Amino acid sequence: MGKNKLQKFADMRSYPHVFEYPYSVVDNVPFEMQGKWGKEFFKNDNPIVLELGCGRGEYTVGLGRMFPDKNFIGVDIKGSRMWSGASDSLKEGLNNVAFLRTNIEIIDRFFAEGEVSEIWLTFSDPQMKKATKRLTSTYFMDRYRKFLVPDGIIHLKTDSNFMFTYTNYMVQENKFPVLFVTEDLYHSGLVDDILGIQTYYEQQWLDRGLNIKYLKFTLPQEGALKEPEQEIELDTYRSYNRSKRSGKKTTLAFEDEQLENE
Predict the structure, then answer these.
(1) Region Disordered: start and end of each range (predicted)?
(2) Tens digits of per-residue pLDDT, 52-77?
(3) Is 96 flagged in the annotation as binding?
């Protein structure tokens, strides 16, 4: 256990734009910012955009630089990775950037109805064994509906053919409007400044010759959601540093696990 990681956790606790609410905390301490992000934290009524599973926060920070008229919140459970984006945004004085350290399974506890306009899913774990853990499953779509604006936008950027194929089937099954789709982003001629933001691991996947896939769709509020039934070929490789999701833990166990694994 290096001092560097201990210092990162100490830094995160002191950062004014970082909120830490894992399972064990949010069950006992209500999250009072719900429905008040714009008024009480960002001090404006600009659209709010989430990056779920933000890792080091490259997209959160990159988008924050590009769009001062929008607010961006990176969400992840891995604190030492998030520290990079949190530190960079603080040093740059990006007042439209924040970070939420929590379990994404309870994301709907942190935002009120219609409070979020867009969601970015950047290289999410494909969770090939269990559909309900996939961030593009109907299980999560039901949660996103609770706080997204009507027909809010969802972006999926992934190296995983399994995740991309599954999400396409899910979108088709539920007749979600598709705005944009490509199986090879960097050879599609469609890359712009936004899509061209590259995460640390994305650069490694590109070096391995993996295609980056992108899907952009809207999420209607009405209608019961159905899971796709098609069989999907599993990915033949494992992405860098993918680990199993942790279950419900005490605060102490949560911190110990992060210090050991990150």
Answers:
(1) 242-262
(2) 999 999 999 999 999 999 999 999 99
(3) no
Please, are residues 201 and 241 in contact by the beta-carbon 8 Å criterion?
yes
Provide the 8-state DSSP code for 141.
Answer: H
Question: For residue 82, what are the domain limits?
Answer: 3-261
Q: Is residue 249 marked as binding?
A: no
CA distances (Å), origin 244, targets 77, 80, 143: 12, 17, 21
pTM, entire model: 0.88
Segment 114-127, tens digit of pLDDT:
999 999 999 999 99
Q: Is 199 annotated as belonging to a binding site?
A: yes
Give CA–CA dist 23/95, Å, rounded. Answer: 27
Whole-angstrom distance, CA of residue 258 vs CA of residue 262 = 6
Give residue-wise pLDDT tens across range 67-111.
Answer: 999 999 999 999 989 999 999 999 999 999 999 999 999 999 999
Judged by DSSP in three states, 131 sits in: helix
- 240 annotated to bind ligand: no
Known active-site residue 125: yes
Q: Of the residues 69, 125, 184, 235, which is catalytic? A: 125
CATH code, domain with 217: 3.40.50.150
